[in-house]
Design brief:
By secondary structure, this protein is α+β, with helices and mostly antiparallel strands. Helices cover 22% and strands 25% of the residues. Strand 17 and strand 18 form a beta hairpin. The chain starts with a strand and ends in an 8-residue tail after the last helix.
């Protein structure tokens, strides 16, 4: 009988540590070669690591949410045969990278809070025990005198005495900030503790780093989307069966790619540690996508070379892969600028946070019909606010505004999107 130590090997260029997000085995399990052992998450993606040997799990090192360094022992196996397998035996390549696997929700639930003690129903002035506006609170002279000394308005005190009468205890509870239990109501005291691990922790850390390092400059412009929405509807009406349905996102991406031709400084990555701006010729747009596992940003590559139909197909494919947990590692990295949208939840405006080290992010808000003045006449148009944020260390305010004005021109006159 020998032993084999399964170590965390190098699962990506420049990766020094990874986070444990899910175990597939436990102590005592018999595992076969190539059987999944653990899911490890890096800042790029989550990979499933498989066992390179057959044996019985003797020991597991590390818990879900813990970060371990490359080279650390994860699992110790008892193997058949007299010779002990070398700990430094090369590991098999990780399985195809998939987006983050989060712990089961049941494992994060706090134990249920004990049921509150039942109290006998009492008559109160209103469902919360407060005196109705304009009514004289029911209280004894002594209670009124004490309330006057404390500067308390009895209209705001919940009475638990007969017919809602305010007692000394009610007054003391109000002055101390305590909430009395009244008829049919009980204070909720339970607390659910949710560990911030996996993708949620990674998102939190990225947002914190972005806000700490980057002086954000936000710019919002109003865009008339009437012509583009009409064009989109017409193109969908005559599309071929195999062609995807068009949303506004493919048009946005085409407009962004054309605008970047004249404003290449927004399509860049800023290495602030080295003091180098990497300005890219290819337009690789990160598409913020909400999934059950959290926010993911699959990347539509070489937008400058794709038609709106090709963009629509690629957007649909990547969004489905991200939501189904099948996006590959290379599909979640390499963006040079980000497009984020909440669709019908887009609101009036937003202040999007940059995806560091990118220097620009675009956020179309909700399209709504509203009256506008055009050529001296009040007409109804489909209007949308276009929000954007830029890294003010790299992008001057005038350049950012000029870039958004170019997008506005292209979106309001969508035929121009097809001219080049």
């Amino acid at each position: 009988m020998g032993t084999f130590q399964f170590k965390l090997h190098d699962i990506g260029e420049g990766i020094a540590e990874a986070e444990i997000v899910a175990w597939h085995v436990k102590v005592g399990d018999k595992v076969k070669e190539d059987q999944p052992l653990v899911d490890m998450m890096t800042d790029k993606a989550t990979v499933e690591l498989s066992s390179p040997a057959e044996g019985v799990v003797q020991r597991i090192d590390g818990t879900v949410g813990e970060r371990v360094a490359v080279g650390s022992v994860l699992v110790t196996l008892a193997t058949e045969g007299g010779a002990e397998l070398p700990a430094e035996k090369p590991m098999l390549a990780p399985a195809t990278a998939t987006p983050v696997l989060t712990p089961k929700k049941d494992s994060l639930k706090a134990p249920p809070a004990p049921a509150p003690a039942q109290v006998a129903p009492v008559s109160v002035a209103d469902p919360l025990g407060h005196t109705a506006p304009g009514a004289r609170p029911a209280a004894s002279p002594a209670v009124r005198r004490r309330a006057n000394e404390l500067g308390i308005n009895l209209q705001h005190v919940s009475g638990t005495g007969p017919q809602g009468r305010i007692t000394d205890a009610d007054l003391e509870a109000f002055s101390s900030g305590a909430t009395p239990i009244i008829a049919g109501k009980a204070a909720h005291t339970g607390v659910t503790d949710i560990p911030v691990i996996g993708l949620r922790r990674q998102i939190a850390e990225r947002m914190q780093l972005a806000k700490r390092h980057i002086p954000h400059f936000t710019y919002v412009e109003e865009v008339d989307m009437t012509a583009l929405d009409e064009l989109r509807a017409q193109m969908n009406a005559i599309k071929k069966f195999e062609q995807p349905k068009l949303t506004i996102l493919p048009f946005f991406m085409r407009a962004m790619a054309m605008g970047i031709e004249d404003f290449p400084q927004v399509n860049a990555l800023y290495d602030d540690e080295a003091g180098i701006i990497h300005r890219h010729q290819g337009v690789h747009i990160g598409m913020a996508t909400q999934t059950d596992k959290g926010l993911m940003v699959p990347v539509v590559r070489h937008v400058e070379a794709l038609s709106v139909w090709e963009l629509a197909a690629e957007i649909a494919r990547l969004a489905a892969a991200a939501k189904d947990g099948k996006a590959k590692r290379e599909e979640l990295t390499g963006s040079t600028i980000t497009l984020t949208s909440l669709g019908t939840l887009g609101g009036v405006m937003s202040t999007p946070v940059l995806n560091r080290p990118e220097v620009g992010i675009i956020c179309p808000n909700k399209i709504v019909e509203r009256p506008v003045v055009k050529d001296g006449q009040i007409i109804v148009r489909k209007m949308m606010n276009l929000s954007s944020s830029f890294d003010h260390r790299v992008i001057d305010g005038a350049d950012a505004a000029a870039f958004i004005q170019r997008l506005k021109l292209l979106l309001e006159h969508p035929a121009m999107i097809f001219m080049r």
